[in-house]
Amino acid sequence: MSLLKDKKIIVIGDRDGIPGPAIDECLKSIGAEILFSSTECFV
Amino acid sequence: MNSVLKAASYVLVHAPDMVLQNGTTQTTEMVVNPDSEYLKTLPGHLRSYDQVVAYAPNQTYIGNMTPDELGQLAQPWTDKPVAGATRQGKYGEIMPQDEFLLLFQACDMFDLVHLERDFVARTRPAFDAHPLMDEYIKSRVMEGVDREQILRFVNEEGAEGIYHQGQLAGYIKRAHDVDVNLSAHVMMENMASKASAVLALKHLIRVSGVDAGQIDYVIECSEEACGDMNQRGGGNFAKSIAEIAGLSGATGCDVRGFCAAPAHALVSAASLVKSGTFKNVAVVAGGSTAKLGMNGKDHVRKGMQVLEDVLGGFAALISANDGINPEIDLGIVGRHTVGTGASPQAVITSLVLSPLEQAGMKIQDIDKYAAELQNPDITKPAGAGDVPLANFKMIGALAVKSGELARDGLNGFIAKHGMVGWAPTQGHIPSGAPYLGFARQDLLDGKIRKAMIVGKGSLFLGRMTNQFDGISFVLRANSGDDRKQREAIGKEEVRSMIAEALRAFAASLDV
After folding, report:
1. Is A39's CB within 8 Å of B458's CB?
2. A22 contacts B461? CB cut-off 8 A
3. To the nearest whole percent, how much of chain B has pLDDT over 70?
4. A43–B468: do the CB atoms touch at under 8 Å?
5. Whole-complex ipTM
6. Which is nearest to A40 in space by CA: A23, A26, B210?
7. A34 and chain B: CB distance < 8 Å anywhere?
């Protein structure tokens, strides 16, 4: 059972690391609920 | 016939007071936490002009050091000032803030910017002595106004203060009573971008040796938007910059694409020249006041100087093939499409591997890659890592994955085909563009045969799409085909002239 299953998640991706949509796909596959997702840029 | 990269220019503007007054990290802090420790301590972390000039990445940006020379210096570069560093560089300059404010005012066409009288008087001798400030620009600098007027407009009329050395040195008015798109804040941002772009364009004319009147199109590719409430990003920065820089024969337009905009603009320029629509296209971008001190909190927290204290600008001239300068090969254009996906591997595959495979080439056939060239001194302490290195690692990893490079050859690949980053984090400025000047020189000198410029952009920041973006192209040593063709045409013409003369002679014998 995943630690994040049925948990409500806010996703902040990093443009130079792992982007939001990629994190979303991983979380969805383990049954997490994504409330908000974005990718930010720090450069 | 491919177009050529005829010249590139680079400018920095030291803007310490704009860090404090206009950088969004600071302006946001002033709203949400006005008494914060960060705002109190920040001024003590700003660099002097001399420190900014002597900073090795800045010397590299204006062409006084090569990327290889910078790469030989151990990081961080903050404690290694360059001996004998100069304001002027092979490709441009580092302008001090006071002189820039006079240029800023000279770029104002709507009586919005007013500087303090004594400040103008003190700064004007240096400004007038600047070799690139022509009579037109100098004549646009006004005498200045009294301090009382400045205070009245800042305190009562919604004007934004313009500061120098912590003191009010002028103001910029709002250009409309209620339209936020013409607010003093937006006008400040746009005018700073315009003025730094003008400086880059003036340097481009200098380094290219091309007459300003010969440039017939300008593409501006910054990340600002000028317009009013009915057309918020209407543009056209390009023409406004060309006007001040004296390009009387030019029209132009703006190209936007976040940090990928310069690469999009360069591909567009190359296409316009290759098609014969225009002969000399200047691609230009000024700097961003919003990004000044963007990572300042991390820099201050770590006891560092705030390194995001310069506006950046660049310009490049794309011209018809002269048989000498490096060609922009439009046969190899990488593109991140809607269907590509956002993972770093998918992005680099679309921009690097796919276009090369389509051209029957391998990753190692490109001598040098220039992707995002942010200075790691700025990004590493802020937790964003070494961005150029991350790009080169991914390109090398794809070479390993495709079987053309052994796994243990990755570090060697990065050293040979990559480079350290030296550009300030000014958004669009670091994205491939800083290498253009060095690439042109290395291709002319025969040190390399091919270079790939990669632009990448974060479209999701505009909240219209979650899409990433990017475009890439290849610069290659001039094949000389154009010169051979012109010589061939010359011979053909000579034969034709001789034949014509002989026919005329024969006709005269008949009589």
Report:
1. yes
2. no
3. 98
4. no
5. 0.80
6. A23
7. no
